[in-house]
Amino acid sequence: MAGLRGTSGALQAIHELLPKLVSEVYGAVDTPFVQFSETNYSADTLQERCDIQSMLSNMSLLVDDINSTVKELSRLSKVLNKATTSHSRYVSAVLRLPAEILEEIFVHSSKTDDEYPDLGSRYLPLVPGPLPRVVVNDSGYLKIAHICRRWRDVALNSPRLWNMIQTTPAQYGRTRATALPVPLSLLARSSETCPVFIYANLWASTLLLDTDMDHFPPNPACDSVKGVDVVGYRGLTVEVLSQWLTQFKNMTHLSLINVELTDSTNIPPDFLDRTTHLHVHPRRASAAVAFVQCCTWVNVTSLTLDMAGMKLNDAFLQAVFGHFPSLAELFIVVGMVESNPDKWSAISSDRLCAFSLFIHSPLSSEEQKLGPLFKALTFPSLTDLVLTRPRSPMLRFLREFLARSRCRLFSLTFTNLSPQDIRENLVCTAALELGEELRIPSVEFYWHLKETRIYLESKGRWYDLDASGG
Predict the structure, then answer these.
(1) Which phi and psi (to 5°) does residue 68 adopt?
(2) Where are the beta strands (DSSP E) in 238-344?
(3) In terms of domains, do 393 and 436 share one?
(4) I want to staple 48 with a disulfide (CB 3.0 to 4.6 A). Which of 43, 82, 218, 295 is the partner?
(5) Can you tell me the distance from the alpha carbon of 116 to that of 302, in angstroms, rounded to the nearest whole number?
(6) Three-state SS for 206?
(7) Are 163 and 288 found together in one domain?
(8) Do 235 and 331 belong together in one domain?
(9) What are phi and psi of 270, to 5 degrees?
(10) Is residue 302 within 8 Å of residue 126, measured between CB atoms?
(11) Are 294 and 373 contained in the same domain?
(12) Domain count within the chain
């Protein structure tokens, strides 16, 4: 039997005595009665029965002694294993990683490929791709940084890890709007150079209008919130929701998904004035008109109107440009476009740089419907244009629009085109020829607006986690 490699004298002594124990065990079981083990032999005499009882007693004592010894050795083995594990951490390379490297690991590990939030195919996504985010429940409990004390300290002192916070109140509950949970402990860890975005999933909650706002004192921890994305439910109005949102005094970016846009006149004016980025998917398209017209959104530079069930007409577009005088980028999703050429009046914007019009429903003659619309538009500062492709490769309406606007396009993008269409469609050929003629640096083709480079880059700037600017 090979010798032990350890330094314990007691274990070495036990190891040296094992051959003697083996001999004793085999001596105890090697009885005169072994030859009868596979027979029906039964002790007939009193002497045989006494001998067998003595042998059983000896074997039982040996079993008890061995089990007792093994139990103690097993306990000692567990003690040693635990000590080995704890001591191995002291020389672990992972624990010697600088805090900056650990922070990068934590940030990347908190990213997810899932859409944030997962709104389904009927909606434009709110974010351009995987972003690090922390998920908290209504009590603010964290599901991260529970490995060891050092990792927890590094995580809790890494503001970038806490600037995308997802919170979901208790489901199917009724609560006052001002009583919605806010993860204040996380907000306190952010800074002005690392703004916070909150995603509030309210689809299974019911908010009630609060008539008493005195119990809702300002909290400095909320000042770090730059943007809020809200996914609501049928019956959630922007008036009720604004009671909760008013605590975020520096919020400039707002997304309202499935929120009733009625009673917009009761929203606090300062809440509307500081908004610079707005993304809206109303439950009812008709309410969007009243919401747009509720005030002059003087500071909004980026507007996304996701209204697949709405028909775009002159009145609505006039309201958008009349009440959003500072727009630099505008993304519109509608179901169809007004077809009467006499119902479009002139619209001009010297500030608009990016314009996107995505039409969900397949139209029989997009060019005839887009032609009158673009004949009414003039955007001298336009640099990026995204359009649903017309069926006809005759792009005269587009050429005339660009000539009238005297703009210098950096990119021209057509949607509703599959990879097969890009290789074979005459519209693609006409678009490429137009790009070459007008020296447009980039002519691009995609299936859906949410896949386009212009939309993704816009949302990337929206959720810029490395700067407090818009």
Answers:
(1) -65, -45
(2) 253-259, 277-282, 302-312, 329-337
(3) yes
(4) 43
(5) 19
(6) strand
(7) yes
(8) no
(9) -65, -30
(10) no
(11) no
(12) 2
